[in-house]
Amino acid sequence: MAGATAERPARRVRPVGVVVAVLTTVVLVFFALRLVTDVPHLVDGTVPDDDLAELYVAHPWLAYGHMVPGVLYLLGAPLQLSARVRDRHLRLHRRLGRVLLACGLVSGVLAVVLGFVFAWGGGAETSATLVFGAWFVLCLVLALRAVRSGRIADHRRWMVRAFAVGLGVGTIRLWVGLFTGVQLGLLGMGGTTMPLRATFGVAFWLGLSMHVVAGEWWLRRRPMSPATPGGRST
């Protein structure tokens, strides 16, 4: 029979999924590097030579209280935003959502605190952390409010906004890497460079603002209609 022998069409790889995977990997790599750098000093009670690492070692509970929930949120959020998982495993969606919402709120609030406690990039980094950290927390709160009111489409929109800006952490790291490479290149040619600390603030503003804009673009491109909690929006 034709229906039995017909091959299933190959699943198309979506560019957004690739971007999410790449940026999540970037976050995981830098988190692993952070652990490799900090843990030996925390165990031995020593102080690292690098002044940025010194801040993490001096405030480990605050730093890792932000990073660990943040990593968990970024790993779990794609499952929450997946229509396939949501429609087929609604109970898992709801339970995981509660956990991830708590992780996101803790990470977001502590991100704002960290922006004041040790913003290595100065005022520009502090202001970016305050603005976008507050936006991230607000998106999560409004998502919770919407789902409790039965406004499922609004809930999903706010969750997309939150995830978009949260994933911006990965893009920040890419900007920092780019700026560091440019600085080294200029130094090699004998040119003048911008202090590395200053580039951190620029990287924060560029990375996070890009993701806020990208989130809004995605929502305009794929509008969500009202749906029941177990249904699929169109």
Primary descriptors:
mainly alpha; disordered C terminus; 80% helix; 234 residues; disordered N terminus
Summarize the structure.
The chain is an all-alpha fold and 234 residues long. The protein has nine helices and no strands. The protein has one domain.
- 3D shape: globular
Report strand %: under 5%
Extended strand count: 0
- The low-confidence runs, each spanning 5 or more residues with pLDDT under 50, are 1-10, 227-234
Total domain units: 1
Helix and strand sequence:
HHHHHHHHH
User: Which structural class should the secondary elements be placed in?
Assistant: mainly alpha
Number of helices: 9
Write up what this structure looks like.
The chain has 234 residues and is mainly α. It has one domain (14-221). The protein has helices at residues 2-5, 15-44, 51-58, 60-81, 83-88, 90-117, 123-148, 152-188, 196-221. The longest helix is centred in the C-terminal third of the chain and has 37 residues, at 152-188. It starts with a helix and ends in a 13-residue tail after the last helix.
List the helices and strands and how they pair.
Blueprint: H1 2-5, H2 15-44, H3 51-58, H4 60-81, H5 83-88, H6 90-117, H7 123-148, H8 152-188, H9 196-221
